[in-house]
Target: Crp/Fnr family transcriptional regulator
Amino acid sequence: MKTISCMKIDEQLLKSYSAEIKIYKEKEFIFREGDSPSYYFQIMDGSVKVNNYNEEGKEFIHNILENGQSFGDPLLFIDKRYPVNAITLKPTTVIRLPRKNFINLIKEHPHVSMEMNACLSHRLYFKMIMIQNMASQNPAARITGLFDYLKSYSECGDTHSFNVKLTRQQIADLTGLRVETIIRTIKKMEKDDLVKIHERKICY
Model:
C-alpha cells in the first residue's frame, strides 16, 4: 500500500514566518482537550501521543506521531476547540508556528496548501475505511482497518515496514475487541503473512 506521509513543512520556511522551537519533557501536555488551537506543531525530535478520555477515564489513543510529523493541523482552519490531547511520550522538541503566521504561509506558498490538502484527504479516506472495518464481525478486518489508518500517517509503503507502536491492550481498546481475541488474531495474521512479529513488536 502506497502512503502519503504526514505533512512536513520545511523548517527554514517555518522559521522565516517566526516559528519557534520548544522543548517538552516526557509526559508533558502540548495542548489539552478544550484548548483553542493557536499553533501549527511539527515534531523535530521525539514522540507525541494524541488521545482523549471517556467519562469513565478510559484512554482512547488516536495516534502516535514521531519526527517530521505534524499534529492538530485541521483545527487551524475552523473555529473549534481541540477534542483531543497531545502528550509527549519522551523528551520532545517541537517547532511551532502561530496560527495567523501559518495561515499567511499557506496563502503565500500555494504548493504547501496543496500538499496539506492531499495529506488531510488521505487521512480522511483511511479514517472512513477504518470506521467501515470497525463494523465488521471479523476481528482481522477491524485490526487491518486500524493498522491501515495508522500506517497512512507514516512514510512506510512496503509490506511489513510499519512498526505498530501500540500494546495489545491498546489495540483491543481501539477496536472494541477483547485482548485475548487480539492476541489470537495477530498470531493468525502472522501465519497468513499479513504481519511480522519480532520481539513482540508488530510490523505491518
